[in-house]
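cache lookup: miss for this entity combination. No prior model stored, computing from scratch. Input as submitted by user K.M.:
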Amino acid sequence: MSSAKVYPVRHALAEQMRRPGGRTAAECLEKAQDALDTARDGAMQSIETLVGKLEAVARSRSADPSDEIYTLAHSVLDLAGFFETGPLYEVAYSLCELTDGLRVQGRWEWPAALVHIQALRLVLGAGPGAADDPALRAMLAGLGSVTSRVATARG
Amino acid sequence: MSALSPETRINLEHSTVLLIDDSPEALEILSSVVRGFGVKQQIKCSSASEAVTIVKAKAIDLIIVDCAMPDMDGYDFVRWLRRDGPKRSITTPVIMLTGHATESRVEKSRDCGANFVVVKPLTPMILLQRITWVARDNRSFVDCDTYAGPDRRVRNLGPPLGMGGRREGDLSAHVGMATEANMDQSEIDMLLNPKRVSL
């Protein structure tokens, strides 16, 4: 067993944060939220572009698109994760799970990926307000089942 | 993790924050959130290799890095920082951001030496809480053959059963025989509820 060197640490950040001045937590959060609200429209346009790219990959039906689809789905997730996007985030997450699972197993299932990509387009149009729509919840549950089936096959 | 009181004052005006994300949009959004927290000096890098150059040249107080990036990813960057970074920056607090948080990815963040992994969806409240948490993070740093970074034991429960432990402060799980007689009930009562006495 190797030996470990253990030593105490004091972060400069803690001392800087304690200095007089600064903002209250409430002010910090308000300004940060304002910034997010300003950025939202641009981010949603970028997500729209990414979904378009996913659809283009889907049309190509290439033999091994897993890396490309995972990267695009992850980019959607990265941007959607800054905002309250509800089902959009859930579908992108499910697509990441599915693609990652298939990559690990070294195989690919177009039907499972296609249904996710179509769902992304659908929820993008529906907006976050549709999160409680029973039909949408049923669709999300269906996507969850598809991804779980792949995960089970992995195990 | 305790909630942040709205009245708590936070001063990030004097802190230099390094943000690393290969997505220009995500980097810009993260930057605007951090600016909202009052950070005046922030450096934005679109790749981990660019960040390596910055860290070598400048003292940084906090690093927020995306896990998934092409070429050198967030995990490799943190491993480099903890092992081969400039001495002044080896213990710099690091928050890792991830969108797709599989168990293996969260473990990878912990094992590369990050202070905290934040899983999206991310709200300003979550990020601000994590920043204040890592600033106060007083865990010791561990440097051994297989790991360099903050002690991964947030709670000290001692080494696993049957193992000796590698740290000076590690206690044996073995409970020895009592060396003194048991306390009687009145002594225990006195310990729990001491009485004032006049001398």
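stored under new cache key. The longest strand of chain A covers residues 5-7.
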